[in-house]
Each structure stands twice: as structure tokens, then as C-alpha cells.
Specification:
CATH architecture: 3-Layer(aba) Sandwich
CATH topology: Glutaredoxin
Helix content: 40-55%
Radius of gyration: 18 Å
Structural class: alpha+beta
Strand content: 5-15%
Number of strands: 7
CATH superfamily: Glutaredoxin
CATH class: Alpha Beta
Largest sheet: 5 strands, mixed
Number of domains: 1
């Protein structure tokens, strides 16, 4: 994976528009996406991580299944998750894909700083999650993990969602072409790291991908209602906050704090 690669979705939006008028050309569009990705230095893979016999949950299960919106969600169809005190004076919008390696880098290096700001009441975090890497790389880890996050949100509110979200990013594979989050068994194993999350209702919802139709709504909202062209993206008062350097690394914690404070002051 190139150190300068970021996960862009602009070309995917264009592909979706073409697909509306040019039916049954999935193979052609897939090949075109592969060429674009390879030109950007991205490895393309379609394998699914094994999990000792458990199969990956197909995202097609969302079609025709009932929409179950998790408790504690907000926005149209519950597509937004808010972490932090409701009376926090500033909202930080965070745009991520659970398979995005640079989102993982951001969460590992700067996520604690942002969480501290939220826990202190300085800001609240508004999560907008995508699943475009499933389309780019093949597999279903973005969608399946998003559905599992919906189960965590329903089970224990934003606190459990946030804890599970952080656990998943900490367990993100080194190669973005690996897709362990496609396995519900793997997702349940990782949920053991969040105290009190593994209730019978949570287990059932993850195994049966109860929140997969909701996950599709969340991903569609990211895709259709935002102008975000890459992840991770952070916005305060509608303006982007720099979190990555030109070389693809994260900014320092000190610089990140300065960037957030400057964005808050610029309202």
C-alpha cells in the first residue's frame, strides 16, 4: 500500500451514475475501478478472510430485509451517531470507512485526543460512516462491521458504539485488501474486548446482521448527501480540519489540537 494513498470516492460516485444508465456492466466497471486503483498504487483483492467455518455476511441481505434503526441514533433514518455531551458547544463531524487504513491511522494516533475533548465537554463527535471500500476492494467488511456497530449502539448507546468502534480500528489488518470484518465470528470475538457488550441480543443481532439495512442507509447517506471525497475527513463549522500530512502520516497531537482550536475560533 502506497504511503501517499488516500481512499477517494469521487470516481465511485461517477461509476454509480454511469451504472444507472448502463445496466449489467458490472464487470466492465469493476475492471475500470481496478485500473484507477492500481494507478493510484492500491492493491486490489477480492478474497475474504477465513474464520474457521463462519461465512462472510453478504451485503445483499440488506435487500428486502426490514429496516431496523438502532436506538440512540439520530438524523434521517438514524444515519448519524453522536458521541459526547449534548450541550457541547462545538460539533466535530468525522467521516470514516471501517476498512480505510488512514482512518485507522487517525484513530490510533489522534483518536484519543479527540475523545478527550469530547469527554471534557469541549466538543461532541458526529460520526458519518461509509462503505465505499467494499465496492473498491471487494468483500463486505465495511458494511458488516457497520451493521455490528449498529448493534452496539442499540445495546449500549454511544458509549458502547464508541468503545467498539475503537476496538475495531485497533484490530484493523495491515493490508486493506484483507477483510476480516466480513466475518461475524471475528466481529463477535472483538466485541469481547468491550465490557458488557456481549449480551444475547447483541450476539443475535450481529450473527443475523439485523442492522445491515440500516448500515446501507448510513453508507448511502455518506455517499449521496456529503461532499466528502476522501477518508478520514474531519469538519468543524463546515470546514475541514487537517489530520494528515502530505506524506500520508498523521499530524502530531499538538498540531491536531491547534488545528481543532483554530477551526473552533473561526466560526
Amino acid at each position: 500500500m502506497s504511503s501517499t494513498h488516500r481512499s477517494h470516492i469521487a470516481e465511485l460516485r461517477e461509476s454509480e451514475k454511469r451504472a444507472e444508465t448502463v445496466k449489467r456492466r458490472a464487470l466492465v466497471l469493476g475492471a475500470a475501478a481496478a485500473v484507477v486503483a492500481l494507478a493510484a498504487g492500491v492493491g486490489i483483492g477480492y478474497g475474504v478472510h477465513g474464520d474457521g467455518g463462519s461465512s462472510a455476511a453478504p451485503t445483499s441481505a440488506a435487500a428486502g430485509a426490514p429496516l431496523v434503526i438502532p436506538a440512540h441514533s439520530t438524523g434521517s433514518n438514524g444515519t448519524v451517531v453522536v458521541y459526547g455531551r449534548a450541550d457541547a458547544p462545538t460539533t466535530v463531524q468525522v467521516f470514516e470507512d471501517m476498512r480505510c487504513p488512514y482512518c485507522g491511522l487517525f484513530e490510533k494516533n489522534l483518536g484519543k485526543s479527540l475523545t478527550t475533548m469530547a469527554d471534557s465537554g469541549k466538543v461532541k463527535i458526529e460520526y458519518h460512516l461509509a462503505a465505499f471500500l467494499d465496492k473498491r476492494l471487494g468483500g463486505s467488511g465495511s458494511m458488516t462491521s457497520l451493521a455490528a456497530l449498529g448493534a452496539a449502539l442499540n445495546e449500549g448507546g454511544a458509549a458502547k458504539f464508541k468503545a467498539y468502534h475503537d476496538v475495531l480500528y485497533a484490530a484493523q489488518p495491515k493490508e486493506e485488501t484483507d477483510d476480516p470484518f466480513a466475518s461475524t465470528a471475528t466481529l463477535l470475538d472483538l466485541a469481547d474486548k468491550v465490557p458488557g457488550l456481549r449480551s444475547p441480543s447483541f450476539n443475535k443481532a450481529v450473527k443475523e446482521v439485523t442492522y445491515l439495512p440500516w448500515a446501507k442507509k448510513v453508507a448511502d447517506a455518506f455517499y449521496n448527501t456529503t461532499d466528502v471525497s476522501g477518508t478520514p475527513t474531519l469538519k468543524i463549522n463546515g470546514k475541514k480540519v487537517d489530520v494528515l500530512t502530505a506524506s500520508g502520516d498523521t499530524v502530531s497531537e499538538q498540531q491536531f489540537t491547534k488545528n481543532v482550536e483554530a477551526a473552533i475560533a473561526a466560526r
